Amino acid sequence: MMIDLALLPVYLTTVVALLLIPGPDMLLIASSSLSYGRKVGVYASFGNATSGLILTLLAAMGVSALVAMNPMALELLRILGGAYLLKMGWDCMRSSASEAPEIAQQNNLAKLLYRRAVMSNLLNPKALLFFVLFLPQFVSTQLSASSGEQMLALGLLLNVMGLAFNLLLVVLVGSLGKSLLNNDKFRTYQNKFMGVVFFALAIWLLASQVQSVS
Known about the structure:
Elements: H1 8-20, H2 24-36, H3 38-61, H4 63-68, H5 71-93, H6 106-122, H7 125-134, H8 147-177, H9 184-188, H10 190-207
Helix pairs in contact: 1-8, 2-3, 2-6, 2-8, 2-10, 3-6, 3-7, 3-8, 5-6, 5-10
C-alpha cells in the first residue's frame, strides 16, 4: 500500500478544496478553451498535468526540496517564469487580426498551448513549493513504503484528479465559448484576449513573494 487509507479521506477532501480555488492554471485553461475551443483547452489541461507529473517526480526524488531551500533558485525561477509569460503575452498582442486561427489550425495551436501550459507551471516557484510543502503532510510512518514512494503515489492521485477537474472545466467553458469562435468580431480580438491573460499571469508571478523552505 502506497497511501495510508486512514489519511486518504482527508487528502481527497483537501485536494477537491484546492481544485475549486481559482488560480493561474485555471485561468489559463479556461481562457484558452474560451478563446480557441475545447481541443486547445484539452491540450492545455494535459500540459498542466505533464508539469504536475514532473514536479511530482522531482518532489519524490527530493530534488524540488533542494531547490525550494535555495532563495536564489526560487527567485531565478520567478523571474524566468514572469519573463516567459510576458513574451507569450507580447507574441499574442502583436498578432494581427488576420492571424486569428482557423479551425484547421487547431492542431498546431493546441500543441503550442500544451507547451505553454507545461512551461508556465514548471517556471512557477509557487507550484514547486506547493508539492514540497503539501505532499509530505500525508506521508505516513505506518506504511512500509518509503516517503518518496508515498509522495509519488499522492502526487499521481493529485494529478489525475486535477486533470479530470480541468477537463470538466474545458467542457463547460468550451460550450460557452462555442458561439464566440464563429463571431468575426471576437476573432479579431482572439489573440489580444489571450495576450491580456498572459500579461496578467506574468504580473501575478512577478509581483508575488516567494519564501524559501527553511
